[in-house]
Amino acid sequence: MDRSEIREKYRLERDKRLRDDAAEQYLPAGEIFDAVYHDPYVPRLEREAIVEELDCVIVGGGFAGLSAGAKLHRAGITDVRIIDRAGDVGGVWYWNRYPGAMCDTAAMVYLPLLEETGNMPSAKYVPGYEIFAHAQKIAQTFELYNGALFHTNIESATWDEARGRWMVRTDRGDELAARWIVLGTGPIARPKLPRIAGIGTFEGHSFHTSRWDYGYTGGDARGAALDGLAGKRVGVIGTGATGVQIIPHLANSDAELFIFQRTPSAINERNNHPIDPEWYAGLAPGWQDEWQRNFTVLQTGGFADVDLVKDGWTDITQRIRDRVVKLVTERGEYNGAIQREAYEESDDEKMDELRARVDAVVRNRETAEKLKPWYRQLCKRPCFHDSYLNSFNNENVHLVDTDGQGVQSIDATGVTVNGVHYDLDCLIFASGFEVGPEHSGSGALPVVGRGGVSLSDAWSNGLTTLHGIYSVGFPNLFHMGFTQGLNLFSNLPTNFISSATSMSQAVAHARAIGAEIIEPTPEAQAAWVDLYENHGSTFLGDVECTPGYYNNEGAGIGVREKRNANGYPLGAVGFMDFIDEWRRSESYEGLTFTPAP
Ligand code: NDP
Predict the structure, then answer these.
(1) Over the range 522-532, which residues count as b (16 or more CB within 10 Å of their CB) and which as e?
(2) Residue 350 near residue 316, CB atoms below 8 Å
């Protein structure tokens, strides 16, 4: 196919998938599955309510909250309580224990604080249970288990202007008066389900991947055989990053497996390998910062002498970059058209390779055709797996392609697609998560700032922050996200470490000068938001992309999406340089520091 034919095919496939209900096509998983509210891993213990004043409440014990806690600890601030609804730290890696759970960003850059904890990743890409253990190690190293309140939900966090404190109430009766509050609530914490007709009526066994039921399936998170599924008819809805990881494990069970596919993922190679302890021990101090920067430079199209991580993420962007260089050399000029041309050529080359990979691996021709992704590579999250495609060569695995329409309906006994009913014993939803910070969407965190304004209202049309951290009207509240900051979506922990470093330095500065209240100026915040909203680079799949959460499910990109997702105008490396300088200058431009009321 030539380029125009490929584009036409992409358009055709996208149009099939556009739907009026866009993001409304999903519902919170808790509306169907009670289990979403229960913790299957750690028993919930009764405890006395705590009433006290303290320095800092950190909401969320995932890598965002842990990074904040670690950096505050380094700055000498230890009167800190992590609060999490889970029974331990770990965040998404606490909840997501499905078979095959793994991070497909290289552990050397994904796992934060490796040098500080003395941990070594076992392999280039590590399994979920190892990542969870690393989260625990961070909590131990920085004494963040002291005072941590698990199985605890925040009912309200309200700024008390007279006291200059955040009044935090929980469902355990706790009343905490905190000087600072850190929101480390993560962008994909709440599981969602597709609003398929009859979704609540299935009478077989059913669960969302983030609450995997090993009691039913047998096996364990370390890959033991799922022997509970022998002889069962099992359906999976969802073939995104999670579906791609679980399907090979399900395919190896003795179940009859039906995979209901709406859009195929693009499956890159993974090529995992163990880390050599001797080599690791020889790395020079400060190596992880260097790796983070190297990954960020290469992942965002920059130049570096060496590709330290060398993975599918850096490959994608290096191809574009090398083509730009070639075209500029040939034509003796650089312009936006060259950038676009290089992007399109590399994109077509890469997607052709990925489609050819499907042909090379999958034996059944018809199945192979259905597994081919027809969209530009960054329209959907790239996936990396060496046995996913192979699974479709198993006799027990049946691909049920819905031609972009999704599952038609669900009833007591199974699923209907294209008018055909599939009887099932078990239906597994790998249907993803509400994407976005916890201030919005279902179960928004009830944070109320100055003058009774809620964070949900203040940010209803997108984030308004300085550096993605501080927000006018919400003094001493620090947001640990990735938007309006570094915006490196291929490796979220790098963003958390960056925000945590800035925040802890500002807090230490406040202490040093005897100030209590940290808040951005309205002017600095407005200028910062304008930078992202009106001048920012975007990772959002363009409007021609097949729908997904990268492009607001095809509903178009408005102010809200730009504020929530656009990158720093000079890219992630530009942001790194900017924020390094901001920290080094110690002038704290844009922030005000005032005494306690
Ligand atoms: P996703 O949102 O990526 O995937 C949801 C899947 O459900 C898609 O395949 C979607 O199809 C499908 N779907 C939705 N509605 C229907 C329907 N009505 N009928 C049939 N199929 C339907 O969720 P994941 O849990 O896979 O991943 C979420 C995020 O978690 C990832 O993007 C990634 O950021 C993170 N993750 C990271 C991993 C890592 O290695 N670091 C591993 C796993 C997850 P369609 O594509 O058509 O919308």
Answers:
(1) eebbeebbeeb
(2) yes
C-alpha 241 – ligand 1 centre gap (Å) = 6
Q: Going by CATH, does the domain composed of 192-265+380-429 fall within 3.40.50.720?
A: no
Q: Are the C-beta atoms of residues 269 and 545 closer than 8 Å to each other?
A: no
Cβ contacts of residue 444 below 8 Å, gap of 6+?
438, 455, 456
| Helix, strand or coil, per DSSP, at residue 209 | helix
Amino acid 441: pLDDT: 59
Candidates 211, 239, 539: which one to mutate for ligand 1, based on the most atoms within 8 Å of Cβ? 239
Q: Say if residues 568 and 483 touch (Cβ distance below 8 Å).
A: no
Alpha helices by DSSP H, listed for 37-147, are 63-74, 92-95, 107-110, 114-117, 128-141
* 406: its two tokens: 């999704």
Claim: this prediction has a pTM higher than 0.90: yes
CB 433 within 8 A of CB 191: yes
Domains 51-190+435-594 and 192-265+380-429 share a fold: yes
Both structure tokens of 59: 């909401």
Q: What is the pLDDT of residues 122-163, one digit of tens each?
A: 999 999 999 999 999 999 999 999 999 999 999 999 999 999
For the domain spanning 51-190+435-594, the CATH number is 3.50.50.60
Cβ atoms of 28 and 144 closer than 8 Å: no
Residue keyed to tokens 């009887």: 423
> Measuring from atom 18 of ligand 1, which residue has the nearest CA?
406
105 Cβ inside 6 Å of ligand 1: yes
Beta strands in 188-316 (DSSP E): 190-194, 205-208, 233-237, 256-261, 267-268
Partners of residue 426 on adjacent β-strands:
205, 234
SS3 56: strand
Q: Which helix (H) or strand (E) holds 4?
A: helix 3-17
Instruction: Tell me the pLDDT tens digit for each residue of 56-70.
Output: 999 999 999 999 999
Does residue 490's CB lie within 6 angstroms of at least one atom of ligand 1?
no
Distances (CA, A) of 76 to 69, 156, 507, 529, 585: 11, 27, 10, 31, 21
3-class secondary-structure state, position 384: strand
Give the number of the atom of ligand 1 that is nearest the alpha carbon of residue 244.
26
83 DSSP β-pair partners: 59, 149
Handedness of CA 528, 532, 535, 536 (dihedral sign): positive
Distance 265 CA to ligand 1 centre (A): 9
For 358, the 3-state DSSP assignment is helix
228 lines ligand 1 (CB under 6 A): no
Contact 366, 372 (CB under 8 A): no
Q: What is the token pair recorded at 522?
A: 């309205």
Helices (H) and strands (E) in the chain, counts: 19, 22
For the chain, what are the domain ranges? 51-190+435-594, 192-265+380-429, 274-378
C-alpha 237 – ligand 1 centre gap (Å): 9
